Amino acid sequence: MATQQTSSAWTSENPILANGELGLETDTGRVKLWDGVRQWTQLSYFASGVGLYGDLSAQSSLAPTGHLLGGVITPSVASGTLTVAIKTLSGNDPSVSESVIIRIGDKTRRIVAPLSLSLDSGTNHMQAGSSLFADHEIDYFVYIGHRFSDDTLFLGVSRFPHYLDSAHASDGATAEKYLACSNTPSTTDPVENVGRFSASLSGTYAWTLSSSATVQRPIRTTRVLSYSPALDLGGAILSGYEEARYQIHDSFVRVDFYANGRSLSGAAGTIGVSLPVAINSYTITKFAILYTPTLGNTMGMMQAFSDRMVYNNGSSFADFAGNEATVYLRCNETFSIE
Fold it and tell me: Greatest CA span in the chain, whole angstroms?
């Protein structure tokens, strides 16, 4: 827990707070750590501000990595444009007199200036407005990073929770793994996951905020989310899906998919299902095809690669010829993203 007020107020009150609580002097940037026994004036400082976003302390390990002290993630939408900002607990932009503390890597830093990022309408940011995701809620992860080149901080937003550096900042705005940044970093500049919020992008690329609560701490998993996959259930099969859900955890994605269709005479070819994200490498995954009346039930193997799972059943769909049949496809599998 962190508490903040001016140095004179701390000295005047001279409190004893719980062990592990941080006290910030908003006018100096200096910090003390309570031991639950001594008063404020009896404690030593473990930090001293040294600039706009400077390193606060050699004892930076006392600040928890990725946690905002005295600040919150604040997303908003206006005219279809999404803005993500770091605000103080009172809702103001950070300043010298009302700062926010963040530990990035092995350094603890103080934010004393506005820090925000806007994603405009009219752009298919991170493929969120594609046919797979348009109007679906997506969980976005917020990062704060440090630019070595000028010793400043930047804000980042991505669909993925596991980034440690800015390598994906150069992917391009419409790339699904893009790390959108408020200021262009080097690919090796470090970032820290600081929380998560939810939003959707329409098919015409306008943003809407979700009613889901913003998570104000580092988190490396999404909720269970839905998407609208493209289906090909083999030639002349009329296809549809009843459930298509996924959850990203760290650098893995779990897909839970259930589809059904009605075969027509002459159905043959490939079964294909879109994955919600591109996976790392070629993967073999189990799936079930249940169909009647000709062949009964069967278990097969799908080849998962890039952004699709494919089962090349070839001519065996000829067994459907002249025999209308109901086809069910089920897959519940975890894939590596990177």
Answer: 89
146 is written with which tokens? 């440090």
CATH of 1-48, one of 2.10.10, 3.30.70, 1.20.1250, 2.40.50: 2.10.10
Q: What CATH code would you report for 225-336? A: 2.60.90
Tens of pLDDT, residue by residue over 253-268, are: 998 887 766 655 555 5
Residue 326's CB is within 10 A of a number of other CB atoms, namely: 13
Question: Minimal CA–CA distance to 132: which of 244, 234, 248, 260?
Answer: 244
Residue showing tokens 């407005």: 129
- In this prediction, residue 271 carries a pLDDT of 62
Dihedral sign for Cα 160, 114, 182, 66, please.
negative
Write the pLDDT tens digit of every residue in 33-68.
Answer: 778 888 989 887 754 333 334 444 444 445 678 999
Task: Supply the DSSP string of 25-65, one letter for each residue.
Answer: ETTT--EEE--SSS-GGGSPEEE---STT-B--TTGGGSPB
Nearest CA to 233 out of 331, 120, 338 is that of: 331
Q: Which residue has the higher pLDDT, 320 or 299?
A: 299
CA distance 208 to 216: 20
Q: What is the tens place of the pLDDT at every residue in 212-241? A: 899 999 999 999 999 998 776 655 455 566
Give the C-alpha separation, 234 to 313, whole Å: 8
β-bridge partners, 2: 22
What phi-psi label fits residue 18: left (phi over 0), alpha (psi between -120 and 50 degrees) or beta? beta
* Residue whose entry in the numeric block shows the structure tokens 């009613």: 211
Helices (H), the chain: 7-13
Enter the tokens of residue 308: 């699709």
Work out the number of other CB atoms within 10 angstroms of the CB of residue 242.
9
